[in-house]
Amino acid sequence: MDHAMYPSMGDADIARKRRALAPRQLEAFRAFSAAAFAEGELDAKTKQLIAVAVAHVTQCPYCIRGHTEGALKAGATEGQVMEAIWVAAEMRAGGAYAHSALAIDQMAHHAAAAERRQA
Fold first, then answer.
1. Tens of pLDDT along 13-64?
2. Maximal C-alpha separation, the chain
3. How many CA atoms lie within 13 A of 49 on its CB side?
4. Where are the domains of the chain?
5. What is the pTM of this model?
6. How far apart are CA 18 and CA 27, in angstroms?
7. Which of 30, 74, 105, 116 could form a disulfide with 45, with the two C-beta atoms 3.0–4.6 Å apart?
8. How far is CA 37 from CA 8, 12, 31, 63, 70, in A?
């Protein structure tokens, strides 16, 4: 394959283009990111483990790699990283299960409408 699906985040040309197209937004995003990941009520390791889980739900390959590395550098074990991923998987599956209530509700409305048409 001569063209990667996901170019390297370290690609200098892409970084320059991103900065040139929206420098204020880029700086604001960097400041926001730094503030979000700064030590606070949650420590750096916990924040990185949350980010690993969210990255798997959002399916961002850059975030998965970057925050897995960040979590490990912050002292997370490989087991903790994997456990965070399992929490993300459960939440995504749980969301699908919980939203089945919408389909069940719609089926009831559909059945009721069909009964009214037959009456």
1. 999 999 999 999 999 999 999 999 999 999 999 999 999 999 999 999 999 9
2. 69
3. 18
4. 41-118
5. 0.81
6. 11
7. 74
8. 23, 24, 10, 13, 10
